[in-house]
Specification:
This protein has a domain of 106 residues: Lipocalin. An eight-stranded antiparallel barrel has the order 1-3-4-5-6-7-8-9. It is α+β, with helices and mostly antiparallel strands and 158 residues long. A hairpin with a 5-residue loop joins strand 6 and strand 7. It contains one helix and nine strands.
Amino acid sequence: MTHSQKMLLVVLLASGLASCNLSSSTHALEGTWRTDSIRNFVNGFSFTNNTFDEHWSTFEYGTDGVMTERKKEKFRKYRYLLPSADSLVYTDSTGHRLSSFRIVKLTNEQLILKKAQKPYLPGKNQELYEVRFFSKIRAAGAPAAGESAAGDPAAGLQ
């Protein structure tokens, strides 16, 4: 096998692994997520808001690449993309980028997103970001991750 063939094989294997990871990220993201808390960090100071109120949204990620943000009786739809396993991007219907997040953690139960913020004041050396913590809302009667329909985590194991 020549050096060029080996390099081609490595590239093909790496891209295959990346697409598998991206596919699992897309699958884990699908469903409805509730905001648990929002942490703001501004130049060394942080504040965490974990007091749920009616102004917090739920986010429904569909299999069709559409995310529906619901707040009370109102809702907005956005397109969402996962350009890589650790990136989430919201776009409008024309594909114009509206917002982007770094995926800090994504499991079937928990989602943590980090978003860089623009500085409030002019000048350099400012660090501002927001971290949002979400938990997945299960459909009524659906078993939790790792549980069988009977509610016993070991019931499905033989």
